[in-house]
Amino acid sequence: MCERYDVIIVEDDPYWYLQFTESSHPKGAQPLPNNSTKKRYPFLEALTPSYLTIDTSGRVIRLDTFSKTIAPGCRLGWITAQPAFIERLTRITESSTQGPSGFAQAMVVQLLRNIWGMDGWVGWLEGLRAAYEARMKAMCHVLDTYRESTVMLESQDDDSMIVDKVRMYSFDEPMGGMFVWVHIHIASHPAYTAYIARGHTKRAMMGQLWKYIAEEHNCLPCPGWMFGANKGIQEGSSTEFFRFCFAAIEAEEIEEATERFGKGIREFWGFNADEVESCCLADVVAEAQGKEAVWGLGYGGFGC
Asked: Is residue 234 part of a domain?
């Protein structure tokens, strides 16, 4: 299709090395012929192929980064493309950003060329992928445990009531990267209809949930509306999502931190409309009830 209509493909894949699919876990590679001078890296060969591997006309511009694999603060990456594109991108850089930090460049070059070499670089990537996958599995295990809540549907008298289980959220294990996206089924909240009937919006109720788990349980996921490209998306489908980062927290803290979210959302699901309205009256999360600013607690969906 791109060949037919002369479409340029910009392949921006910062998490390419952090794949958690079965195909990215090689059980062993076939050895090269004895007369081959190439060295094989089963880890790299098992990754989902880049569009560069099927590009026959030089229309793919691939963007890669060291920020997701060495250090987020280095803000350093590279572009792979045909010479005509590289020449133009070089001229644009010369007249705009002037290139990344010289210190960051020197550090990465020293690390790759003089300390790790190619063998060390690939070994680091393989170990990083394994560490992140273990963290992801731990987070998803706890999320799976808390996804349902028991709610009271009707109180018949002082001695009996009708209860049911509702699914508060759903999620899929990510196939790569550093985040788990959680879909909050906010409409399943027992007080949702009453809350909306008072003139509030779905976004407002999600905001109350977000602030409640931050203020009361020191858990700060990244709200989906931050990623909305326009107001319609911010108030619509993106509102129902939280993003959790398992890369920005110590591995041994992931289960306890994720449990804080689980306990917080279960408590929130037990609120009536009055309690949803009044549970978070502070305008700024960090100012709530004089508690430590949750922005610095190191757990949440925020990350690069």
From this structure: yes
What are the tens digits of pLDDT across the range 71-125?
888 889 999 999 999 999 999 999 998 888 899 999 999 999 999 999 999 999 9
User: Measuring CA to CA, how many Å separate 298 from each of 178, 212, 218, 221, 304?
Assistant: 14, 17, 10, 11, 13
Domain count along the chain: 2
CA nearest to 69, candidates 33, 23, 34, 120: 120
Residue 133 falls inside a structural domain: no
Domain extent, residue 48, equals 2-126
Sequence-separated (6 or more) residues with CB below 8 Å from residue 245: 178, 179, 222, 299, 300, 301, 302, 303
DSSP state letter for 167: E
Question: What CATH code is carried by the domain that includes residue 272?
Answer: 3.90.1150
To the nearest 5 percent, what fractions of the chain are helix, strand and coil? 50, 15, 35
Give the global pTM: 0.83
* Distance, CA of 116 to CA of 4 (rounded, Å): 43
What CATH number is attached to the domain comprising 89? 3.40.640.10
